[in-house]
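Let us practice reading a record.
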Amino acid sequence: MTKGRGGGTLLQGRLALMPPAISARDLSRSFNTFTAVDGINLNVEAGQFFGFLGPNGAGKSTTIKMLTGLLAPTSGSISILGRDLVQNPLEVKRQIGVVPEGMALFGKLTASEYLHFVGRMYGLDKATTAQRSEELLEFMGLADERKKLVADYSHGMGKKLALAAAVIHGPKVLFLDEPFEGVDAIAAGTLKAMLQGMIARGATVFLTSHVLEIVERLCSHVAIIHRGHIVANGSLDELRAGVQARLALPSEDGTIHPIASFGERLTLEEIFLNVVGATDGSTQGITHPEQELAWLS
């Protein structure tokens, strides 16, 4: 089946023939006696906008560091675009872009110098690096700050520069750890448009964020990690249907959860709270008993 000239269906057909953009098998990471990630299995297909969620300390950043080669796994295997990360680290890293948790920018360089450095490190020639650097600085609203030292950038400006550096070489897979943290609404809108454009051209985006509304608007598929284990994984519709089905079961007192009864469309926040609450052994589902702090009353 085709759709017009260069239409979306043609792209989807090509993507379907590709190996998974990201594949992790029995992936674990331990720090002394603490296991941060415990034997997870994960498949992200090419062209997906994939959200990776979890509470603080669940293992999100540890997983991203392993998937991008920044941290060696204790056990398990990782392949990116069909290539084993351990056996082909440089080949894989040329195909990916990363905005890590701490950004890791070089503060003693200007924004322009930093992008030139990153572009050359990825093997771009000088002319291409210069052209893309200027385009990215304009796009990110940093053109007037190109000669300012990165150390003098605000947190939000640093986020935009880190994202510019992550995409300067045209990666096929982009890893983003809290990319919208500290970014103003106008800049966030620009970044969202850029990411959606990358998806439309067949790239894959792997996103972690605590802002679930952003994940719900952008991502087609979501996995939830909790205490080092994947506790939910699928499209938003699949996750929504799974939670709805569980809520439709009578509780111990025989009552039906009102969301299941009235057929309301669950938000990602409600899905997340229900899945994590169920994993914690909570019988309350989405609604939790209110906790009071007497000294605030």
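A brief commentary: The first strand starts at residue 22 and ends at 31.
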